[in-house]
């Protein structure tokens, strides 16, 4: 069987690993995670979600505190249109964060950043322009445009000296969206360097309707986009994303479906280097298919896939727009509006409207929105549960190497899981050992992990 390592993704005439780690915010795609993959020659994303707050935590800056102080008097105001972000602060935070990461890269792989259009920050075009150009100025290898059509994004970067030098890509969920983006961007004289096709099984925000996401498949959309590009005589690499759980899955998308690369995130979300909390990582490992849902919690209007046990779902916290407000648009946010209606009804003793939205800024900042791909319940196939009930976390390198080298239904266990099995001489019939671990392979090893677990056995 063919492994993913047999393929290459060609960008600007240079071959790279065809595996891209997706952008996970807020700072779930940490610098440590990205650098571990880049060191191996892979491609990884940072996320530009809430970088002012991320900078405060990493570097001791006080961007968030300054904003909260500046608008403290508007805490009870229904209209938040006056709460504008300081664009100099946005730029400084972005450059500080990205330049710090880029100073540590090896040049073997690529470091990209995921930029969400729906991060409107109460002045969509102004803040988007600042974020995009600051990322370019900080030396990022490339920018992936996500969570929106980005019809103006190329124009907003067109005067930057790195506009034609840095890699630029776009995430779409249909050929129609790609066609619209290309038409609106044509005047800049610049085509995207790659297109990420994100299917309905991805984690986080989905580019489909709440009711129709089940009617689509990643394979069909990849073929549709490839056909569209061929019809237009455009040679742009297509990256398949969403629900690609094993190296065998990835190789099939490359060899049979015609993708030029694949993007994965959920399996990297539970890596040691990921910014998720330990509780969230363990919850992912313990999840079952029925524990994952697509809901309308996000105030962006996009459906989201997450664990039903995400603490944010039941939370009714007060909106914290003064400190954050990253999803404010013309002074409004769907959660802000809903929260006020609910609490006004409570105060008046009237029927309380149902809770449907969540304060995504605060909860994402506090890692209480446990977004995951549809295959998250299979994470238990990728590691070992210790006798105390906790799961051994893989490293980013473990996950990367498994994707690159495994074939068919194989899943290679993390090195720490193999060491634990050997050290404890665990009975392979123990409830803590996945049923697919081959019985007599614990004493053997190969250049990667030593054991291949068979997910389908």
Briefly summarize what is shown.
This protein is an alpha/beta fold. It has 15 helices and 15 strands. The longest helix is centred in the first third of the chain and has 16 residues, at 87-102.
Secondary structure blueprint with pairings:
Elements: E1 9-11, E2 14-16, E3 19-21, H1 31-39, E4 43-47, H2 51-59, H3 63-70, H4 87-102, E5 110-116, H5 124-137, E6 142-146, H6 153-157, E7 167-172, H7 175-185, E8 194-198, E9 204-205, H8 218-231, E10 238-241, H9 247-257, E11 261-264, H10 266-269, H11 278-286, E12 292-295, E13 304-307, H12 334-348, H13 360-365, H14 396-405, E14 410-412, H15 415-424, E15 452-454
Parallel strand pairs: 3-4, 3-11, 4-5, 5-6, 6-7, 7-8, 8-10, 10-11
Antiparallel strand pairs: 1-2, 9-13, 12-13, 14-15
GO molecular function, one term: nitronate monooxygenase activity
InterPro entries: Aldolase_TIM, NMO
Pfam families: NMO
Features:
flavoprotein; eight-stranded parallel barrel; 13% strand; three-stranded antiparallel sheet; disordered C terminus; oxidoreductase; 15 strands; 457 residues; globular; 15 helices; Nitronate monooxygenase; TIM Barrel; alpha/beta; Aldolase_TIM
């Amino acid at each position: 069987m063919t492994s993913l390592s047999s393929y290459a993704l060609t960008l600007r005439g240079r071959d790279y690993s065809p595996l891209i780690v997706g952008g996970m915010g807020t700072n779930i795609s940490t610098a440590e995670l990205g650098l571990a993959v880049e060191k191996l020659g892979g491609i990884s994303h940072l996320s530009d979600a809430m970088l002012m707050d991320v900078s405060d935590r990493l570097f001791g800056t006080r961007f968030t505190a300054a904003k909260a102080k500046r608008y403290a008097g508007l805490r009870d105001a229904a209209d938040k249109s006056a709460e504008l972000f300081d664009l100099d602060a946005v730029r400084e935070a972005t450059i500080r964060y990205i330049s710090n990461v880029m100073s540590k890269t090896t040049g073997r792989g690529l470091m990209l950043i995921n930029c969400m259009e729906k991060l409107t920050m109460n002045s969509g075009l102004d803040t988007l322009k600042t974020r995009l150009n600051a990322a370019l100025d900080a030396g990022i290898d490339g920018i992936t445009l996500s969570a929106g059509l980005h019809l103006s994004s190329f124009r907003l970067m067109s005067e930057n000296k790195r506009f034609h030098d840095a890699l630029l890509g776009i995430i779409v969920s249909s050929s129609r969206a790609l066609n619209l983006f290309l038409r609106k961007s044509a005047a800049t004289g610049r085509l995207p360097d790659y297109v990420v096709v994100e299917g309905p099984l991805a984690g986080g925000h989905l580019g489909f309707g709440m009711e129709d996401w089940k009617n689509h498949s990643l394979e069909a959309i990849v073929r549709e986009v490839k056909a569209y590009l061929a019809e237009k005589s455009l040679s742009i690499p297509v990256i398949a994303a969403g629900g690609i759980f094993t190296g065998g899955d990835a190789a099939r998308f490359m060899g049979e479906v015609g993708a030029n690369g694949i993007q994965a995130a959920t399996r990297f979300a539970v890596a040691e280097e990921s910014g998720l909390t330990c509780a969230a990582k363990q919850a992912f490992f313990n999840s079952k298919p029925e524990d994952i849902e697509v809901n309308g919690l996000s105030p962006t209007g996009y459906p989201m896939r997450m664990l039903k046990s995400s603490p944010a779902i039941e939370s009714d916290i007060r909106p914290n727009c003064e400190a954050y407000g990253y999803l404010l648009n013309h002074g409004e946010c769907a959660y802000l509006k809903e929260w006020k209606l609910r609490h006004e009804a409570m105060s008046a003793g009237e029927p309380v409207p149902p809770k449907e939205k969540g304060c995504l800024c605060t909860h994402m900042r506090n890692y209480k929105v446990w977004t995951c791909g549809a295959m998250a319940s299979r994470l238990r196939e990728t590691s070992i549960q210790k006798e105390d009930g906790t799961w051994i976390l893989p490293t980013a390198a473990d996950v990367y190497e498994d994707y690159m080298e495994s074939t068919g239904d194989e899943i290679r266990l993390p090195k720490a899981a193999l060491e634990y099995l050997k050290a404890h001489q665990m009975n392979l019939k123990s409830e803590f050992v996945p049923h697919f671990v081959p019985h007599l392979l614990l004493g053997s090893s190969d250049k990667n992990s030593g054991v291949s677990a068979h997910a389908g056995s």
